[in-house]
Amino acid sequence: MADAPALTFARIPHPAPTPAAARAAAIADPGFGKVFSDHMVVIDYDAAKGGWHSPRVGPREPIALDPAASVLHYSQEIFEGMKAYKQADGALALFRPQANAARFNASATRMAMPHLAEDLFVEAVRQLVDIDRDWFPAVEGGSLYLRPFMFATEAFLGVRPATQYKFLVIASPAGNYFKSGAPAVSIWISDYSRAAPGGTGAAKTGGNYAASLVPTAEAFAKGHDQVLFLDAVEHNWVEELGGMNLFFVFDDGTIATPPLTGTILPGITRDSLIQLAREEGLTLREAPYNIEQWQADAASGRLVEVMACGTAAVVTAVGHVAGPDREFTIGSGGPGQLTTKLREKLVGIQRGAIGDPHGWVMRVG
Predict the structure, then answer these.
(1) Residue 195 half-sphere exposure toward CB, CA atoms < 13 A
(2) What are phi and psi of 3, to 5 degrees?
(3) How far apart are CA 336 and CA 71, in angstroms?
């Protein structure tokens, strides 16, 4: 929409914000995705009214939906995951929000949903961080996790793209993503498939994650931290974890990561690590890697580290891999030198502890 960037956000006063003492108690040990801040952003879309309209920041509250809202029947829904980080001087900042905005619109294209102007997306996120900055948790490594999302609201029963949508942003103070808190995670190779060629694997849409719930529960039940998905055609090629991309580090210093073929989510953390690794002078290739070769390389010592990455978990080492017919350990089973180095560099940029030559960090207020 040509007029979208010119939209002005209205601020609706909160009638009963959380008292300071209750807020402090809630964010003292927030975990991940369980505590929510006071406010939310809402922008409505109606094709008959010219597109996006009525952007506002107001109290976080339930959403009224007609029982025939098309999202409930045909799953037109997309979302993003991003964080606000505290800088060395106490200010809050976003990390590569324009990249999230671009990926959001790529998901919208695949799900036949309207685009939201990238500047409007970023401003919506900035507005929420600004009004709820006091919800930032004081825990080590804490952040304000941000969830922009859009869903179809038009009431109709028919298989076609909706003409009405809502875009919202909510915030959740966050601590450690993994419950175990271990320095390296253990993963379970699933017999299920996450995405097939020509499907929605590259879109950040809820259906992909709904499909991962049973295999993820299976992994948890077997004592693992995450689930690994192989390709849907041959069930041989490594794709990604339930919510993270993978990198493989070899004894000659080279790195490999599965290519983006339409069945893997194009992670923003993934893209950032690719750039940081190449700046370190490392050879990084995007190439297919099969599970048999992974096990053989781990056994021979050729594979020395495996990194999993995503917005929620940032960068974490994979120490152990198991499945119905195999089990093996990578290196010593803990974080390797390169995993630690790249994580520290990425986190340093995100939190303003080291320079940001890419202009990835956007300060809020």
Answers:
(1) 25
(2) -90, 0
(3) 43
Q: Using only C-alpha atoms, what is the Rg of the chain?
A: 21
Residue 321: φ, ψ to 5°: -130, 135
pLDDT at position 182 is 67
Query: Is residue 204 a contact partner of residue 80, using CB atoms and an 8 Å limit?
Result: yes
- Cα(156)–Cα(87) distance, rounded to whole angstroms? 46
Q: Per the structure block, which two tokens stand in for 127?
A: 């507005």
DSSP collapsed to 3 states, 294-324 = HHHHHHHCCEEEEEEEECCCEEEEEEEEEEC
**pLDDT attached to residue 176:** 77
Residue 215, both tokens: 């295999």
Name the region of 141 (left: φ>0; alpha: ψ -120 to 50; beta: rest).
left
Give me the residues paired with residue 255 across strands.
Answer: 249, 284
Tell me which fold the domain 184-350 belongs to. Answer: D-amino Acid Aminotransferase; Chain A, domain 2 (3.20.10)
What are the structure tokens assigned to 16, written together?
Answer: 């009963």
Q: What is the mean pLDDT of the chain?
A: 95
Give the class (CATH, top level) of 4-174: alpha beta
Q: How far is CA 10 from CA 56, 133, 138, 193, 302, in A?
A: 5, 18, 30, 44, 57
Asked if residue 363 lies in contact with residue 129, where contact means CB atoms within 8 angstroms, the answer is no
Question: How far is the CA of 361 from the CAs of 14, 44, 120, 347, in angstroms?
Answer: 29, 28, 17, 11
User: What ranges in 139-221 are assigned the alpha helix state H?
Assistant: 206-211, 213-221
User: For 17-134, where are the alpha helices, taking DSSP H only?
Assistant: 20-28, 71-74, 97-110, 118-131
DSSP strand pairing (164-174 vs 39-46): antiparallel
Residue 2 has pLDDT above 50, yes or no: no
